[in-house]
Structures are given as C-alpha cells and as structure tokens.
Amino acid sequence: MTSDRFNSLFNEYRQQVVDLSTAAVNASSPAETPTWLHVLQRHVQEWKQHYGSESQAIQEIRAKHRHSQLSSQAKFTDLEQEILEVTKSFELKRETIWIRQQNELSRLGISMG
C-alpha cells in the first residue's frame, strides 16, 4: 500500500469517526440545545480524560520495561520506541477530537480557530 493510498484511507476513516461522534453527541444531548458553556465544559473534560489516558499508557509502558530482562541500552531503545508509537496514536486521537469539537462549536456559531 502506498503512503498516498494510506493517507487517503486514513482521512476517510477520520472523517467517518468525526461524523459518527458528532452525531452520537447530538443524539444523546437533552431536548434543549446545549449552551456554549456546557459544550466547552464537556470538551475540557474530554481533554482531561484524553491526556490522563495518554499519561497512564506511558506509565504502564515504563513499568513494563522496568522488569524487562533486556540490556539497559536495548531496554531504553525499546522503551523509547514504544512510547513514541503510543504518543503518535494519541496525537491522531487528538486530531479527531479537535475536528469533532470544532464541528460541534461551529453548529453553535462559535469559532475557536
């Protein structure tokens, strides 16, 4: 698979996730239209949870590598590679969260840039 094809498929997937997530949030909202304050509070809570999950994942990787039988150099290289992969995964999730949240805010007529 070429990188262009991968990027195309990933962008299609990301847009589907954004659309489905936005629809799910709108469907589960109360009958009244949420105020911008409620939306922003929910967004802040989502970011706190996201960064907490990322931190926890990295801590679990470090704990796993503390008990590894590899040499110290191999252990360090393996640890750094695994942390890098987890960080990249969370970066992709952040992009998706950001796009979805911008869509929610734009529906309320709010632009956060």
TrEMBL record:
This is Uncharacterized protein.
